Fold this protein.
Amino acid sequence: MMKLKLPIFTMGLSSLFISSVAAGTMKQTVGEAANEFRMVVISDVHVMDPSLLIEGGKAFNNYLSHDRKMLRESTVILKKLTDSLIAEHPQVVLLAGDLTKDGEYVSHRYLVDSCLMRLKREGIQALVIPGNHDVNNPHAVSFMGDSTEIVRTVSAADFASIYADYGYTGALARDEYSLTYVYQLTDKLRILAIDACKYEENDFEKNICRHDGRIKPETMEFIKAQIADAHQKGIRIIGMMHHGLVSHWKYQDRIMKGYLVDDWKKQAAELADAGLEVMFTGHSHAQDISCRKIGKHTIYDIETGSAVTYPSPYRLVSLKDDEMSIRSRFIESIPMDLNGLSFDEYAKNTVAQGAATLVTSAFPPEMPDSVRNRAIRCVAQALIANCRGDEHLTAQERNEIDEVTKLIKPYSARYAKLFRVATTVLREDAYPPDNEFIVRFAFISPPF
């Protein structure tokens, strides 16, 4: 069996994948059909408060070189995204974690003040969960030329307080072991917002922030009890969690296991057996829908890409009777000078620059630039395709991967093998489609 234990390459690859409400019940939007409910799902907005970039320079550039999010543009992207959400005017917006660059208090406040409060004033309920960047983060810093300075991050209690109006105060039920909660949107619909982060294990002395996730055993018992309660009362319940629940591509649990919850097969089986059918996720900065059939049950993991990574997507979700329709939309432009490039070109270039850093730092230094540059192009194309979703590897692209693999092999057979596997599996999308899809529920609830 192939062994894919190459920490430098995989860590680099991982870094790139990076109101009308009362008592917690949402009112129906004017003119909406009484049996339809409209949501928008976004993830990984990673907003960075402008005050954190005191002075550009080596420190900030070094951060970007290892984590190619469009952080400098994050506030402009957030405004454009918020404008788009208001124009869509759903009844609820779900934010599937990684709300901030690195859990800075000022960035959390920026998100609330610049986005969530605007939605609230428009009668749109926003519901949040934390991502691995958002709580107790030792990487919360400001940038001053060549140096950084530690700034205030937030605790779990702070997080619940900051987002009191966005899930926590109006929660129907809260787990005492995590930031997990259940929110009742209508008489017939609940959101199960799951906190799977490991922020308790972050280490400030060693500057370690855990990016992997797990569902605590006590939290799983809370979750299963909430699913059972909803079904007993004839109420549909849908999950939201930052980390992936179901593998999205072959070998993901070996190459990038930190993007799935620990013991994901067991966790997915428990949730499917309990009757959960849909989980909205984020974390990987990619558009993908995957499913896993467990006995008579099927559970869908609907992963939404990052607002600050190509192609800056959001999902429109419509629930009606026993169907959930999913459509994807993308931010196409922002009011900002991008060196003469379109937003699409600029965003792709940002991913490609990250691919260049990855290949340059991870591959053998003696490898010629001609080979390195071809490898960079292949990795960039694979990452860009994976971020967009609905990937398809053409015969020409497969031949290019095979040729580059042969060129890498004399310098490192191990890296050649991983290069071939990674650039191939990231381009081979499996059923179901990633951007436009209809989920048909097995559990039939009364109309919304």
